[in-house]
Design goal:
Largest sheet: none
Structural class: mainly alpha
Number of domains: 1
Distance between the termini: 43 Å
Helix content: over 70%
Order of helices and strands: HHHHHH
CATH class: Mainly Alpha
Strand content: under 5%
CATH architecture: Alpha Horseshoe
Length: about 100
């Protein structure tokens, strides 16, 4: 059983598990199934906006897909979520990626 199959099995028992959803999206990125990865990241963040780590990965994916405008919006949402969570490390990573894209 590959990683995607295993993660989907785990998600059957825990469909709201943000860590599992994040991991599944990353697996789809690895095999370049970007639309699937994007959908999973977006669903995760709409359901659990405090899951700060997914903002960076979603925005980077959107950059890779050529959608800079939407990537910028997700970086901004991620920076706000990181501020609320007091996660300075994530805030710094998001800000750096945001500024690199903007300038």
């Amino acid at each position: 059983m590959n990683r995607i199959e295993k993660l989907n099995e785990f998600l059957k028992d825990n469909p709201g598990d943000s860590f599992l959803q994040h991991a599944l999206a990353l697996e789809y990125v690895k095999i370049e199934e970007y639309d699937k990865a994007r959908l999973i990241f977006e669903q995760l963040l709409h359901r659990d906006p405090a899951y700060v780590g997914s903002y960076y990965h979603l925005a980077k994916l959107l950059e890779k897909m050529g959608d800079s405008k939407t990537a910028i919006a997700w970086y901004e949402k991620g920076m706000e979520a990181a501020r609320k969570a007091g996660d300075q490390h994530a805030l710094g990573e998001l800000r750096s990626a945001y500024e690199e894209l903007m300038f």
